From TrEMBL:
The keyword Metal-binding applies. It comes from the Eukaryota. It is a peripheral membrane protein. ANK repeats lie at residues 662-694, 695-727. Signal peptide: none annotated. This is Arf-GAP with coiled-coil, ANK repeat and PH domain-containing protein. Residues 558-577 have a biased composition (Polar residues). One of its GO terms (cellular component) is endosome membrane. The lineage of its organism: Eukaryota, Metazoa, Chordata, Craniata, Vertebrata. It is found in: Cell membrane; Endosome membrane. Keywords: ANK repeat, Cell membrane, Coiled coil, Endosome, GTPase activation, Membrane, Metal-binding, Repeat, Zinc, Zinc-finger. GTPase-activating protein for the ADP ribosylation factor family.
Amino acid sequence: MKITVDFEECLKDSPRFRATIEEVEGDVCELESKLDKLVKLCIGMIDAGKAYNAANKQFVNGIRELAQQSTKDEVIESSLTKFAESLQEMINYHTILFDQAQRSIKTQLQTFVKDDLRKFKEAKKQFDKVSEEKEAALIKNAQAPRNKQHEVEEATNILTATRKCFRHIVLDYVLQINVLQSKRRSEILKSMLSFMYAHLTFFHQGYDLFSELQPLMKQLGGQLDQLVVDAAKEKRDMEQKHSTIQQKDFSNDDTKLEYNVDADNGIAMEGYLFKRASNAFKTWNRRWFSIQNNQLVYQKKFKDNPTVVVEDLRLCTVKHCEDIERRFCFEVVSPTKSCMMQADSEKLRQAWIKAVQNSIATAFRDKGDDGEKLDRKSSTSTGSLDSGGEPKERSLKGESALQKVLAIPGNSCCCDCGQPDPRWASINLGITLCIQCSGIHRSLGVHFSKVRSLTLDTWEPELLKLMCELGNRVINQIYEARREELGARKPQSGDPRHEVEAYIKAKYVDRRFIRRPSDEELRTKVVSLSKQEKRLSSSSEHLPPRAPPPTPKLRPGSNVSGQSVKSADSGIQNSADGSREMLAATPSNNSLTDADAAEPPPMPMPATLPPPSPCKEMAFYEPKEYSPGLQLFWASCARSLPDMAEALAHGAEVNWVNTEDEKRTPLIMAVQGGSLVTCEFLLQNAANVNQQDAQGRGPLHHATMLGHTGQVCLFLKRGANQNAADIDEKTPLAMAVEAANADIVTLLRLAKMNEEMREAEGPYSQSGDETYQDIFQDFTHMASNDPEKLNRYQQYEPQRP
């Protein structure tokens, strides 16, 4: 606040003047305190900035060192070098910003405090002193007696001189006050404006710098997507090779070495042998031997040059050595020397002796072709790793999932703002989103939207099919049905975030743009869905029977067969060997196909297996009340995901219970409909996987009764309680045994065994057995992508009117 003092008022030395002076002095004292504090804070900020710059320089140097270490990868080296240069420029800009802060804030304000405020303090001291002198002169003049003329004259002269001095000092003091009050505004504003312009320059330079860098960053972003896909593919390849090698029988490693004269790199045979030294101590050393180019050589380390034992195998012979203390020894004798070697077993010794003999014979037969094989590239010791075929595609990640989802009409742009090329999705809504809208969807909570990346996350087959069943066009027809009617503007790409957020909340949370159906429209919809369910259920009843499939293939070492099903009601072995044998079973051509693909014709029931219990008949009848929950109920059975999404949008409870139909839920009806994707959609929208009907049967019970192997696998993965019993005290396992469904018996037993193994490993165990994970992935893959392979025990169709 600017306080000025009137010059006329100061000559009067009135109480108003004194009050003004007191107010000014307090204000200047507070100003000095605030300026001192600001200068100290500025000094602290500058010191912290210098420390930040120093640490940032070290970080940039680390990036440069990483780039130098990656010289073999041109993309990483060039990208990191460019990033390091840009970050170094930003450090330089920071340094300029802190220098400007020091000049504009620290130096300029310190000068103002030291010069102008010091002058004010000096003027205040003189004013206080002359004020006291004037007060004393007034008192002395008032006390002078009238009868003492000399004292009166003296007091009068002193008072006159003091008043004259006071007027001079007080005018100077008032001038200093007014000048200070005027100057403080310009000094403070000039200092701060200079500092703000320094910030403007800093951010403008940073913007220009990163604008130039943006094309490179976009290019790298595109390459990164492909790199993620390539990395995932390489990982799957490595896992497949690892699995292939792990499944091999290594109990007889001695027989794995074989002589191969046509090896690509000219190495006919290689492996470890003990070699007896030629020194006086006759020590034995383990070395890596190989037969290559008609020579016997060995080396201690990979980088060592091979030491030649025999120059030309045509001039030597090989024989057993039984006259020394060590076992499995043999000797290679040449005209000039002999070499004693020891294998790890008798079979390996025979293999090496045979290899040397074959090399000798080959050398004599092809003595002119010794150098032809030098440039070949792979050896027999590693070549077998490449056999075994391509790994099976289990889950999709990166470009594959992105391409499949974006191929759906309407999915090439964000569902909410229309930005092209979205990279995110809401899996419970089945829509694609840009990065800004995905962040807003996350803020809504998972009970409204579950967000997943289309390029970085792994996509299960059933979840990918769910995305392909819905899409932006279908969902917007539901959630934006009345948008134009209400005059609501749909946000565009680039609109402020708060506008987009308000629209998304109105769309999905408040559901403001949904068209509520009338009672008659709802009734028509429900009746139509019930008729659609009947047509779907009857479409497979008149197809010719299929021939029985071959016996299921098992993993190596497995003893699970059809006989295990007959004895499925027996107790599970607790031994580790028994557990591993059961876990080794591989799903093959088994059980009822998922209705998401074309339903295969029913198979005749094997004569040796007991028939399963028939399902409850599903008949449509006039309900007491039509509701969105009833629409969801019949849409789940009719496998109509758009109608299910519409029912949920209209407020249907995902766990709605039909009290007029034995308390069945939409999830149980989805099991009856036979669609794996329908079940997945309900589970993604928080359906209870363990909710039971009036018979005490949950979704797992019904999937087991119907032989829907893919659904059984899905429910077990989602935490279904396989120990739950219905009113007849039957668990899903008991039903599967009774129906002689080998696949579902295997799945249920594997899940139970995996649970027991995790409990045995402790409360912090999460992963369970790897073989269990692999088998469930196999079933998941087949249920979604190769449902015809799950076609073994389709014994009957549920009776429907």
